[in-house]
Amino acid sequence: xGDFFNLLKRFVPPYKKYLALxxxxxxxxxxxxxxxxxxxxxxxxxxxxxxxxxxxxxTMADGSLKTVVINxxxxxxxxxxxxxxxxxxxxxxSAALVFMTALKTGATYLSSHFLVxxxxxxxxxxxxxxxEKILTLPIGFFTQESKGDVMARMSSDVSEIETSIMxxxxxxxxxxxxxxxxxxxxxxxxxxLTLFVLILLPIAGMAMGKIxxxxxxxxxxxxxxxxxxxxxxxxxxxxxxxxxxxNAEDKMTRKFEGATxxxxxxxxxxARRQALAHxxxxxxxxxxxxxxxxxxxxxxxxxxSGINAGSFIYYMIIFYNIINPAKELSKAVYSIQKGMAxxxxxxxILSARNPIADxxxxxxxxxxxxxxxxxxVTFGYDKASPVVQDINIVIEPGETVALVGASGSGKxxxxxxxxxFYDVDKGSITIDGIDVRDLRxxxxxxxxxxxxxxxxLFNDTIYNNITFGVTGATKEQVEAAAxxxxxxxxxMATENGYNTSIGDRGCRLSGGQRQRLSIARxxxxxxxxxxxxxxxxxxxxxxxxxxxxxxxxxxxxxxxxVIAHRLSTVKNATRICVIHEGRMVEQxxxxxxxxxxxxxxxxVAMQSIxx
Length: 611
Known about the structure:
This protein is of the alpha/beta class and about 600 residues long. It has 22 helices and ten strands. The strands form two sheets. A six-stranded mixed sheet has the order 6-7-8-3-9-10, sandwiched between helices. A four-stranded antiparallel sheet has the order 2-1-4-5, covered by helices on one side. The protein has two domains: about 1-350, ABC transporter transmembrane region fold, CATH 1.20.1560.10; about 370-605, Rossmann fold (3-Layer(aba) Sandwich). The chain has helices at about 1-10, 15-40, 40-45, 65-85, 85-135, 140-145, 145-165, 170-190, 190-240, 240-245, 250-275, 275-300, 310-350, 410-415, 440-445, 460-465, 475-485, 490, 510-525, 540-555, 590-595, 600-605, and strands at about 370-380, 390-395, 400-405, 425-430, 435, 450, 530-535, 560-565, 575-580, 585-590. Helices cover about 65% and strands about 10% of the residues.
């Protein structure tokens, strides 16, 4: 339960007002419960002649508060019987019972009313915190975690926390108050009998606790398996074209059915253990009542108890009102154990450390010139196996430097190090002589525009995709950026122009159209530094020509780092750096590298382009 209380400490403080009101009305409901049941005693003792004592009115000087209150209650009941008769007095007492019950149920409702904002608010805050954490985590975190599993943690795990933990808050805040208040009255009636009860209840609680621990372990297995199912679905939707092309539907179906069958078996174990909670608590509660009934009755029969038969009946009524909250509390604890497995999975994201952090005293670049320098840069996703080693590149302001080489040589990795998607292991990357690690991450990335091989667009309008990340852009500026990117004409040919929705990842557009929108987005941002990561490699010749023209306009007077497989697109670069197996083996202009007759010449020969 320690993790549960840590959850409350983290998320409940903004709702302290509601929590205080909930506890207040829970206490009021518990006290009213005792008083409503107290009305039963004079009915039993006086109307049915269980007790025939005569009472006189007492003041506080005549005894303790408890003695005076009980005596005067009996006194007024006795007077009512004498004045109105037993039948009318019974009606009055019944009306008092109904009135007290109405107050009690009203207080119970208000306690739940003020708990609702806590329950729903904590779940909302948890979702928001989880989403914000995902946005702040480095890209490297998601190369180790399945996207489907992350989605499962944000959806089903948070939903499980809501249904298993937050739904139990009412029982957790209400039932302990009821138990404490009732125990106080039970001690006042008979401390000997209550001591016996306090020995019995923990034994029953221990039995329920063992089942709850097993449930948490099994629930964790279930949530992990659900994450695997979500990952499978995410892979299937992303690779549907390949699955169909290779007639792999049966294979994928068998894989998915195997995962759901494992989830089915685990879910059965969880549900059966959870279903055991109510019967087990019912049986243990009845057993406890039976033992207390025997023990207390024996004390009264032998005359060793300090209470009479009427008070013992009242004692048993109060004790029964402890049993029900205790059973509900055990079910709540049982349910929380199930939800804690989901909280554990969510916390793996919330507690993940982000190594890409802002410096304590960040440097601010006043006037940016745009020089970028890689100095002795070494980096590996696994530090024991560097992907790039001892790279030295200086890109002067306004220069276009291209990185070329075989797939897996480390070109994209070098580009990812500049905006600090990852941090270098050795060496440094500087902008105008300032280490990028000395700048605020947001300030650093604000200097850069990215155009990638895969145009990453969002399920929104064309206008909102172009203005993504740019605030205050006017319609004229957006259209100007689209014209420079050779995108305006096709945009105006769509159904609603700039207000046309492009679908999931821009699925309603062609590859060339998506790429031109991403270029328009970079043009509107107007960054001094530009990273082009194979921006034309996935396009046909006609689209490539249009996109290349847009890129040429975008690169004008900007410091640009270009990664390319198609060497024809970088022939006019200021300088070309050839990367081979993580090291820079050649650099120079297109003609200079051809004259060397080395790695670059072999790449050119393989792509059959001339000098």
